[in-house]
Amino acid sequence: MAYAIRRPSWPSIVLGLVVLAFLVFSLPPYFIGDTRVPATFALHYPLLVGHVMFGAVAMVCAVAQIWPGLRRRRPVLHRRTGRVYVATAIPAAACAMVIGAATPFGPILAVSNVLLAALWLWFTIRGYLAGRARHFGEHRRNMVYSATLAFSIITNRLWTPVLYITLNPLQHSVFDGNEEHFLWVVAGVGAWLGWTIPLAAVHWWMRRRPAIEPSSIPRTTATEPV
Ligand code: HEM
User: pLDDT digit string (tens) for 35-73?
Assistant: First the structure.
């Protein structure tokens, strides 16, 4: 079957560049045994490194999976990349749940971390199982939520400095000059906003476009498992 060559759309190019910039900024310390996150228990650092490395591979795979036309033109590559996404997102989320519960940046962030990691696991596993069962509508829905949560870690990083600057005048009046509590609130609220807003936006978008495009599942894959 011949497929028309479609140029990648602007949103996917922008997303790819944003992910690249995020990884180029975030990864280097972890290649030389360094970190920006203070350890809170003995296994914290190895789990953090595992989280960062698995998370990075999952994020790159997620960009490939939503690249327009890949699913239709290269269904085998779509399936293989999807398997690598699942195999890396699951350990990344499991590590995030453990280090997230013990974050040095306060209890509001800890609750957000654990819930976000649990949802990331939930949507990834459900999406994988739905794909295996050939329930493609459910597979697509869950995988779009899963990828949204993976990418949301980028918006998460943007909120914290914005909140730090805008809430700074309240540090003395509301927080009695306690900088640690101020930082806990800034980091915690930034994290909640970082994933709840993209998840709500994608949920709204999916409700407007609920059906899977019939042409997006190639006939040739009809007998092959995900
Ligand atoms: C979506 C679920 C995710 C959760 C719940 C999560 C949670 C966490 C937690 C708890 C930390 C340690 C900092 C802290 O204690 O708050 C962390 C650090 C980090 N995570 Fe994630 N993460 C997620 C996804 C990702 C993804 C997909 C990547 C992609 C590479 C990633 C990259 C990183 C990096 C680079 C750090 C180290 C931060 C730094 O050095 O500044 N995370 N994450």
Answer: 999 999 999 999 999 999 999 999 999 999 988 778 788
- Is 155 touching ligand 1 by the criterion CB < 6 Å? no
Give the integer Cα–Cα distance in Å for 82 and 20.
19
**Which atom of ligand 1 sits closest to the CA of residue 112?**
5
Atom number of ligand 1 nearest to Cα 149: 1
Question: For tokens 């790159």, what's the residue?
Answer: 60
Confidence (pTM): 0.90
* Cα-to-centroid distance, 78 and ligand 1 (Å): 25
Say how many Å lie between the CA of residue 84 and the centre of ligand 1.
19
Q: Which atom of ligand 1 is nearest to the CA of 96?
A: 7
Round to whole Å and give the CA distance between 96 and 141: 23
Question: Alpha helix locations (H) across the chain?
Answer: 10-26, 28-31, 44-66, 70-73, 75-101, 107-132, 136-167, 170-173, 179-208
